């Protein structure tokens, strides 16, 4: 009896999924959008944007603790670009503070900085930047070098023999400062969100508009099956798209891929489910395709573009926007992807972000199912 | 004693202050063609949606095929078919795909599906159109297909909400042939319409005005009762006092 019921259920479910795939593959415009979009996005975002960065967290390791290093630190401190923490870090700690996102850039003054400067007229400063976000790394390094150069000029003013402070810059994770490392995870987030949210919500609302939803609701199939089967094709297509983006970025843009492919796909699946839930919620709350599309764009596309962090650094934004960015799922996904792909970290490094995404998904799913029940009455 | 398949008792639907359907009580017998008539906005669609389980009544009760509309909606759904006012097949699916999809969701087996679809296509004369997208068919054809799909699982009752709206007279006539064929198989037909000539085709009809049923009888008795020569006159006589219409 139970086996019979399951059989019927599976058969109905497959019938539905088949129908959804027909819908997708017969709509040429949608198909073009589905598969053209990632390529267009990758090309578009290739033109990286640079922006001013304010109050970025940097760490100063001052082994010198002398007049010269202090003066430079004071000047760095005076700049609105930085928020300085002064500590002495070991090599391992430097690595860790980057991985944990505690610092965007670390400046190391060697022990005899002032002595070298006074006696040899030549001293070294090491600047290490987290270049997984190449725009930020580049900009921050430029700010630091400018300040140090300024100090050097100041010193040399009354001296016939100029002082020389050599800044030795190291770009961690992404030595060649490839823009791809920054925008590819962003484009991944954007594309997955776009397809999953927009397409799902529109396809459900379309059934309402056409009147077919009524027929389905009058039939004995469970409304949940109607909804879930809508999500399946878009889930599958999103994974295909993800693969296309990854292949493009690794083989065309020489993007590094240091972490686990499996983990990345698992995390991506989670984001897709989050997005699908959001799509369901939108479709259950709207009655026309236009409204669904508009809400999807307003509620998803714009925040994803602005608040994920791949176009504009979040740390520069006023705090209300920074707060809002926390409820944008793609922000967390972006962090996860960067950690996995570029830094090659495992699940233990991204479990917090994963948990946040999971929480969002459960919340959105619960809300949309609740909405759906109300609608049926 | 005729078997009763639909029985409503003071069925009411309120939307805020507006009473769309006001305490309607009636019975429909097995195998009959029951015409559910009324002007626009009289409350026909609302009543039908309650009977199909698409909308929950505000008060009153009803049983459909012996099942309670509050508690046994799942059993009701298995025993009814529904064709909405809007054309509602998938335009981007072919004729055959539509038949198979709707048959599939009613749990027909592959064998049944094959038999049913062959029979349907034959009956409709769609042999050359099976692989055509439904969107490319003329409206009349779509409506006929839509009806056939609504009864594909041989329900006890089929609800038709203005099935012939916007269809030419010849196709309407063909459509009613399909309805008669279904009724002959024992399917009870519950149909709303605007066309008074179609009212004549029904075994019994009810007239709704402003959310209430004002008359219910066979077309012949109604004409007698209102001393009218046609259903048009009966309708006019009843609907004249309506406050709601659009």
Keywords:
heterodimer; A: 377 residues; abc type-2 transporter like fold; 2 domains; five-stranded mixed β-sheet; 14 helices; 5 strands; B: 246 residues; alpha/beta; four-stranded antiparallel β-sheet; 10 strands
Question: What does this protein look like?
Answer:
Chain A is of the alpha/beta class and 377 residues long. Chain A folds into 2 domains: 227 residues, no CATH class; 117 residues, abc type-2 transporter like domain (abc type-2 transporter like fold, 3-Layer(aba) Sandwich), CATH 3.40.1710.10. In chain A, strand 1, helix 3 and strand 2 form a beta-alpha-beta unit. Chain A is elongated. The mean pLDDT of chain A is 81. The mean pLDDT of chain B is 88. Chain B starts with a strand and ends in a 7-residue tail after the last helix. Chain B is of the alpha/beta class. Chains A and B meet through helix 1 and helix 8 of A and helix 2, strand 6 and helix 3 of B.
Layout of strands and helices, then pairs:
The complex is a heterodimer of chains A (377) and B (246).
Chain A: H1 2-26, H2 28-45, E1 56-62, H3 67-78, E2 82-86, H4 91-99, E3 105-109, H5 113-120, E4 122-130, H6 134-156, E5 164-172, H7 180-210, H8 212-218, H9 223-252, H10 261-285, H11 289-307, H12 319-325, H13 329-342, H14 347-376
Helix pairs in contact in A: 1-9, 2-7, 2-9, 3-6, 7-9, 7-10, 7-11, 7-13, 9-10, 10-13, 10-14, 13-14
Chain B: E1 4-15, E2 18-29, E3 33-38, H1 44-52, E4 59-64, E5 67-68, H2 73-79, E6 80-83, H3 95-105, H4 110-124, H5 139-150, E7 157-161, H6 169-184, E8 188-193, H7 196-199, E9 204-209, E10 212-217, H8 219-225, H9 231-239
Helix pairs in contact in B: 3-4, 5-6
């Amino acid at each position: 009896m139970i086996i019979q019921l399951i059989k019927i259920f599976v058969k109905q479910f497959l019938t539905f999924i088949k129908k959804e795939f027909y819908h997708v593959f017969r709509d040429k415009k949608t198909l073009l959008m589905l598969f053209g979009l990632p390529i267009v996005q990758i090309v578009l975002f290739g033109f990286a944007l640079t922006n001013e960065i304010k109050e970025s967290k940097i760490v100063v390791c001052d082994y010198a603790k002398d007049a010269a290093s202090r003066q430079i630190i004071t000047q760095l401190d005076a700049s609105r670009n930085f928020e300085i923490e002064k500590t002495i870090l070991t090599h391992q700690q430097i690595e860790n503070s980057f991985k944990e996102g505690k610092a965007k850039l670390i400046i190391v003054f060697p022990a005899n900085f002032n002595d070298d400067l006074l006696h040899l007229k030549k001293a070294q400063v090491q600047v290490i930047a987290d270049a997984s976000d190449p725009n930020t790394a580049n900009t921050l390094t430029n700010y630091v070098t400018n300040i140090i150069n300024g100090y050097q000029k100041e010193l040399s003013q009354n001296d016939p023999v100029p002082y020389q402070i050599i800044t030795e810059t190291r770009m961690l994770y992404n030595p060649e400062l490839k823009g791809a490392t920054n925008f590819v995870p962003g484009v991944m987030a954007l594309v997955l969100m776009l397809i999953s949210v927009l397409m799902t919500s529109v396809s459900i609302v379309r059934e309402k508009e056409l009147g077919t939803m009524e027929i389905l609701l009058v039939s004995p199939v469970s409304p949940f099956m109607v909804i879930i089967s809508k999500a399946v094709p878009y889930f599958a297509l999103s994974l295909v798209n993800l693969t296309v983006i990854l292949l493009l970025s690794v083989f065309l843009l020489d993007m590094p891929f240091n972490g686990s492919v499996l983990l990345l796909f698992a995390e991506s699946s989670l984001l897709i489910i989050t997005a699908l839930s959001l799509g369901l919620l939108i479709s259950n709350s709207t009655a026309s395709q236009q409204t669904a599309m508009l809400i999807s764009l307003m509620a998803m596309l714009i925040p994803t573009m602005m608040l994920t962090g791949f176009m504009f650094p979040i740390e520069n934004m006023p705090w209300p926007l920074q707060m809002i960015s926390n409820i944008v799922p793609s922000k967390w996904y972006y962090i996860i992807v960067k950690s996995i792909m570029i830094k090659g970290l495992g699940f233990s490094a991204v479990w917090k972000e994963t948990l946040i995404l999971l929480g969002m998904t459960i919340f959105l799913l619960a809300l949309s199912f609740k909405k759906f029940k109300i609608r049926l009455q | 004693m005729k078997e009763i398949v639909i029985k409503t008792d003071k069925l009411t639907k309120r939307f805020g202050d507006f009473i769309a359907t006001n305490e309607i009580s009636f019975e429909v017998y097995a195998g009959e063609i029951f015409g559910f008539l009324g002007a626009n906005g009289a409350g026909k669609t609302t009543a039908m949606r309650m009977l199909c389980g698409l909308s929950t009544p505000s008060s009153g009760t009803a049983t459909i095929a012996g099942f309670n509309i509050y508690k046994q909606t799942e059993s009701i759904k298995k025993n009814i078919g529904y064709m909405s006012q809007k054309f509602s097949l998938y335009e981007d699916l072919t004729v055959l795909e539509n038949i198979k999809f709707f048959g599939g969701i009613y749990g027909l087996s592959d064998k049944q599906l094959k038999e049913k679809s062959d029979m349907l296509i034959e009956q409709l004369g769609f042999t050359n159109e099976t692989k055509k997208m439904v969107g490319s068919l003329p409206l009349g054809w779509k409506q006929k297909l839509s009806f056939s799909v609504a009864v594909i699982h041989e329900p006890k009752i089929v609800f038709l909400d203005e099935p012939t709206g916007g269809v030419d007279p010849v196709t309407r006539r063909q459509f009613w042939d399909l309805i008669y064929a279904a009724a002959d198989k024992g399917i009870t037909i519950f149909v709303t319409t605007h066309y008074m000539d179609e009212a004549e085709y029904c075994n019994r009809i009810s007239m709704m005005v402003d959310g209430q049923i004002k008359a219910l009888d066979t077309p012949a008795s109604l004409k007698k009762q209102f001393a009218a020569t046609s259903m048009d006159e009966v309708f006019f006589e009843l609907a004249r006092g309506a406050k709601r219409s659009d």
